[in-house]
Specification:
By secondary structure, the protein is mostly helical. The protein contains twelve helices and no strands. Helix 5 runs antiparallel to helix 7. The termini are far apart.
């Protein structure tokens, strides 16, 4: 009599391994971005600076306009006045950009990120895309609010203009583009230096210290150097450096700023691929 064979135990089905794609990396980076409290606090700080300082500049300018000299009145730009908070907001966005990458090196999270994504560069592309999309969206809303609030304050003294005024819409959108690209430079610096203090110090030096130092140069030299600095080249797009000597055309200056960002991002990508985490 032949033995009865027991039925074989069912084999547990294996879950298929998920392929690493840029879309999945993008979703992962967005989840990390929005889950950090420091990210939300920095965004709120940037928006508060952008709107609050814009309103302050507009209110003070409106109340003091009668004391301006004829030259100051001739150079007065109501659109740029209502967007002056952009100069201060770029600090917060730049710091956030640096922290986005340097923070992972500080906490050691970068090793987990690069283990999950061995090719490495998709991590950088994901961070840049998430950062650019979020910062541009937030800053664009803040820029429009700043413009309309500033013009309302200026209009009380008959100094305001409409959004349809020449260059107004370009300046409002340009302010958002400027802080976004400046923030991307911060991401690149965070990737290059892998250190928060070094990244922030370099960003502050490039955007705030060097432009002040160029004022010490002879006018014959400084007037030819200043327009090509990142802060001045990008600032022309929203009117922040439009009155500087030899200022570049708005879109030319912005293209130069994008060129600086592209070079730094390329250097950051090279280091991310070559250097150990």
């Amino acid at each position: 009599m032949s033995a009865v064979l027991a039925p074989a135990a069912p084999t547990a089905a294996r879950a298929p391994a998920l392929k690493v794609t840029q879309a999945r990396v993008l979703l992962s980076e967005f989840t990390k971005f929005r889950s950090l409290r420091s990210t939300m606090y920095t965004l709120l700080t940037a928006v508060a600076l952008m709107i609050g300082i814009d309103a302050l500049f507009s209110a003070v300018t409106a109340s003091q306009y009668h004391t301006f000299s004829a030259a100051d009145k001739a150079a007065f730009n109501p659109v740029a006045t209502s967007l002056q908070g952009t100069v201060f907001a770029v600090v917060a966005f730049g710091v956030l950009g640096v922290l986005l990458m340097s923070g992972e090196y500080t906490t050691g999270m970068i090793r987990s990120s690069l283990t999950a994504v061995p090719r490495r560069l998709p991590v950088l592309w994901g961070k840049l895309a998430v950062f650019a999309g979020t910062i541009f969206s937030v800053s664009l809303v803040a820029s429009f609010i700043s413009f309309f609030l500033g013009q309302a304050l200026l209009s009380g003294h008959h100094l305001g203009v409409a959004i349809t005024a020449p260059g107004a819409l370009r300046s409002v959108i340009g302010a958002a583009l400027y802080v976004t690209v400046a923030g991307l430079i911060g991401v690149a610096l965070g990737t290059l230096f892998r250190n928060t203090a070094a990244g922030i110090a370099t960003f502050a030096g490039v955007f705030f210290v060097i432009p002040q130092l160029t004022r010490l140069l002879p006018t014959s030299i400084g007037s030819h150097v200043t327009p090509y600095l990142p802060s001045n080249a990008g600032g022309v797009l929203w009117g922040g450096a439009a009155n500087a000597p030899n200022a570049l055309a708005p879109w030319t200056g912005f293209a130069l700023l994008c060129g600086y960002a592209a070079v730094l991002i390329a250097a950051a990508a090279w280091r991310l691929r070559r250097a150990d985490a």
